[in-house]
Amino acid sequence: MSLQIAEGREFAKKRAAAVSLLYNVVLTILKLIAAALTGSVSLLSEGVHSATDVVASFIAFLSIRAASVPPDEEHPYGHGKIESLAGLGESVLLLLIVVYIVFEAIQRLVVGAEIQNLGLGLWVMGFSSVSSLAVGTYVRKVGRETESMALRSNGQHLMVDFWTSVGVLIALWITQITGWREADAVVAILLAFWITFGAFRISREAIDQLIDRKMPPEEIASIESILNESEGCLSWHKLRTRHSGHVHYIDVHIVVSNEWSVVQAHDLADSIEKRIQAELAPAHAVIHVDPYDSSKSGI
């Protein structure tokens, strides 16, 4: 059953990554064409922004496939941390986008910019807003369900695209209604602060995985519950947990009666491993067996 779950997650991840990549390519082309027809600097900015999303989606697309490669002799723990590296790289890309947006916004405030064919710009950004929200929500949902750092980061890119599209849409609408040309730049600077917050959050999660931070409290509680409920397990200690990509890694020492045979101890350890792996699939659990020793405290 756990194998079927793992295979289903891998398929869902690859499909979401492909959808994100295809969507960003189409949206980038649409925005760049609209920018050329309207002469809108904000639309050109959005086109460049979407082009970086194409790069981010391509990174996620490749990293998910690379991370799904089975463990080999040189990588016995698998390749899951490739996703964490991809998530960190995408967060850096988001920060570069912030620098570009702020630069363009300040330039517009100082120099100013004329926009033509506002109607076309409004339609393009309206479509961009709705579609980015739909695709971003889907990608982030798959990312959460499969615990894929690359997809969660990529979904963050798409949600950033949604908010920047909304910002540009509002700015274009204000410009059309009031003639206030600086509205676009003001909205862009406000959005830059929000993008920065999201980028730092994604980078922190990626770094946590890269330095082997322990699993969340609720997942550790599930492991502890299994250990406490296992008949024959007198106690346990040295519980260690970590993530590599979307895979959970758990190792723990259990204490059994010193009168047990090797077969009995092995069967109990094997049973606990299977329960943990089924509960937290995909997961790898390793149980070390210690005989009961009354002279040792804490056992």
Quick recap of the structure?
Helices cover 71% and strands 10% of the residues. With 299 residues, the chain is mainly alpha-helical.
Structure overview:
The mean pLDDT is 79. The longest helix has 37 residues, at 2-38. The two termini are 34 Å apart. The protein has eight helices and three strands; from the N terminus they run αααααααββαβ. The protein is mainly α and 299 residues long.
Keywords:
three-stranded mixed sheet, 3 strands, mainly alpha
User: What is the structural class?
Assistant: mainly alpha
What would the principal axes of the Cα set say about the shape? elongated
**Number of DSSP strand runs:** 3
- Mean pLDDT, to the nearest integer, reads 79
Topology as a string of helices (H) and strands (E): HHHHHHHEEHE
Round the Cα radius of gyration to an integer and report it: 25 Å
Q: What percent of residues are in strands?
A: 5-15%
Q: How would you write the strand order of the largest sheet? A: 1-2-3
The major beta sheet can be summarized as:
3 strands, mixed
Distance N terminus to C terminus?
34 Å
Q: In which range does the helix fraction lie?
A: over 70%
Number of helices: 8
Low-confidence stretches: none
Write the SSE topology.
Elements: H1 2-38, H2 41-67, H3 81-111, H4 118-146, H5 149-178, H6 183-210, H7 217-229, E1 235-244, E2 247-256, H8 262-279, E3 283-291
Parallel strand pairs: 2-3
Antiparallel strand pairs: 1-2
Helix pairs in contact: 1-2, 1-4, 1-5, 2-3, 2-5, 3-5, 3-6, 4-5, 5-6, 7-8
